């Protein structure tokens, strides 16, 4: 082996070789043409032709890109090198104080934001910077060149001094009146649900936006939250309350669920909801209970009455069906738990229907099950779940 050669360590078929140094670690030197262009803009910056280092860096990079073959320099690289060498040459950092004319222009747009003439802070700052550049070309002695970040910092300070405490998405006056009107209609019952009020408010905002440029078309979830908060302040209840007549109906169906006259909780909830809709004055009311709310109310009342619930005990006939399909799963007759659960649930529903027809579905026997309960007994409790993992 030659002197200075790098040994190669071999182990079996594999060979471990030293990695070559990354090309990114090797600095790319500036060529003569790049150095000449860079020196030209550095001298221009030192003479005062550019107020900001960033302006000189942008112009220098544009000239570098015009070279034959182009230049791969980054703007941050050119900017940092200009900044370091200009400071080494004795140039002081540009930090011009804000004149009274500049502060007057900033306060004018900050006041417009506080008065909610703008829907966002960024729109107000963009207009302020645009007006600043226009006045700088007209009055160069009173307006110095400013960046967007510098204007934003001065703008926010002026806005907070005028009492602005928002987050940047302010609500203009027409939008405020629209939300108040929709919240009032929701509270008085002209809109039956919050979703209906939110949809109507969103449509009205879309029609109103062309006439007010500062108005924001907010997301439906944001509109829903704003309407719910304003309607609650006006006295709207957040949810429907249960009356004595409704609780009487719920109690009757809870007893029927515990007695086995329903195949499951959802079926009991649907029957209870159908009877609730037949109560006098229910359709004229602003409040309507949803199916999940009715199902939860029925099952909760059955538990409070200390009655056997629909999913309390599995009978011998139900266990036989589950065991039959568990053996089929273990034998490999099913490729996944979905189809096995579907077939088992189908046979279970047939069993409940047959027993109900014969009048053998008394309290505490052969109650209806949900698909999730059947799947738990078949896949989880019987130990067949690892077969599908």
Brief characterization of the structure:
The chain has 389 residues and is an all-alpha fold. Helix content is 58%, strand content 2%.
Strand content: under 5%
List the secondary-structure elements in sequence, H or E.
Answer: EEHHHHHHHHHHHHHHH
Q: What is the structural class? A: mainly alpha
- Terminal-residue CA separation: 54 Å
Helix proportion range: 55-70%
Cα Rg:
38 Å
Please state the overall shape, judged from the principal axes of the Cα atoms.
elongated
Number of strands: 2
Total helix count?
Answer: 15
Biggest pleated sheet: 2 strands, antiparallel
Uncertain segments: 1-19, 21-25, 361-366, 385-389
Produce the secondary structure layout.
Elements: E1 9-11, E2 14-16, H1 32-47, H2 53-65, H3 75-88, H4 100-114, H5 121-138, H6 148-161, H7 173-188, H8 194-208, H9 220-233, H10 244-258, H11 265-277, H12 291-304, H13 316-330, H14 337-358, H15 371-381
Antiparallel strand pairs: 1-2
């Amino acid at each position: 082996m030659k002197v200075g050669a790098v040994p190669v360590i071999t182990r079996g078929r594999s060979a471990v070789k030293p990695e070559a140094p990354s090309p990114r670690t090797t600095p790319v030197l500036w060529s003569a043409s790049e150095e000449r262009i860079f020196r030209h803009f550095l001298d221009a910056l030192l003479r005062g032709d550019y107020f900001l280092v960033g302006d000189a860096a942008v112009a220098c990079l544009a000239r570098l890109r015009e070279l034959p073959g182009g230049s791969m320099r980054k703007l941050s690289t050119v900017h940092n090198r200009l900044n370091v060498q200009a400071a080494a040459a004795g140039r002081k950092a540009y930090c011009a104080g804000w004149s009274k004319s500049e502060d007057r222009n900033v306060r004018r747009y900050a006041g417009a934001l506080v008065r909610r003439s703008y829907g966002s802070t960024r729109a107000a700052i963009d207009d302020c910077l645009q007006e600043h550049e226009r006045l700088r070309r007209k009055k160069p002695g009173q307006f110095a060149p400013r960046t967007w970040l510098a204007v934003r910092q001065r703008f926010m300070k002026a806005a907070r001094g005028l009492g602005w405490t928002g987050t940047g998405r302010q609500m203009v006056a027409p939008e405020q009146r629209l939300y108040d009107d929709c919240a009032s209609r929701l509270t008085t019952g002209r809109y039956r649900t919050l979703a209906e009020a939110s949809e109507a408010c969103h449509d009205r905002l879309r029609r109103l936006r062309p006439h007010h440029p500062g108005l924001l078309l907010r997301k439906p979830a944001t509109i829903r939250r704003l309407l719910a908060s304003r309607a609650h302040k006006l006295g709207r209840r957040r949810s429907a309350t249960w009356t004595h007549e409704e609780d009487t109906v719920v109690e009757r169906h809870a007893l029927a669920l515990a007695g086995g006259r329903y195949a499951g909780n959802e079926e009991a909830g649907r029957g209870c909801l159908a009877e609730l809709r037949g109560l006098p004055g229910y359709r004229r009311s602003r409040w309507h209970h949803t199916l999940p709310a009715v199902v939860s109310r029925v099952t909760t009342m059955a538990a409070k009455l200390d009655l056997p619930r629909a999913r309390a005990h599995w009978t011998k006939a139900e266990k036989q069906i589950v065991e039959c399909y568990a053996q089929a799963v273990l034998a490999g007759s099913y490729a996944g738990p979905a189809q096995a659960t579907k077939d088992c649930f189908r046979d279970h529903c047939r069993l409940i229907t047959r027993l109900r027809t014969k009048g053998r579905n008394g309290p505490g026997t052969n109650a209806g099950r949900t698909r999730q309960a059947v799947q738990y007994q078949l896949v989880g409790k019987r130990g067949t779940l690892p077969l599908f993992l």
